[in-house]
Fold this sequence. Notes:
The protein is α/β, with parallel strands linked by helices.
Amino acid sequence: MPFVCEFYAPAKLVYTIGYGTITFLELCQHFEELSQDSRYDRPMNKIVRYAHNQVVQLSLEESRSLPAVKKRYHRYFVGERSAMIAPTDLEFGLARMHMSYTDEAGVETRPVRTLTEALAWLELDPSADSALAAWLEDVETRVVKPIMAATVRNNSTDRAG
């Protein structure tokens, strides 16, 4: 599964990192698994970050069916706020398109450029919460940076070969 979810219960926060090639089926499986995860204390705030240059393989029809998929899980995700970190113009545009589909399902989604913007929109302040700051640093060091580095390495190898 090309998703890693890290949970921070005190702030009701889940940090989801997507990597590799993500298909519609895998996205649906992610929703199912998250809805059944005992750590998911709904409603939660969510930070979503995709590894650089990863691919989401969704047809236009699949993209349009996302609201229906999300509606199936409405009772699990109602009240959720999801900040999608999208640093490049292409990622930001795709995140805005995703936002238009998920808003139909009653999930508030916002594309942002940085983790700092994501935290601000979710009304989380690591400077005022040292435990949150330590957790974020741990997730960035232990999970995000290695995935990003591996993605960059794999993309460089793909282009060279």
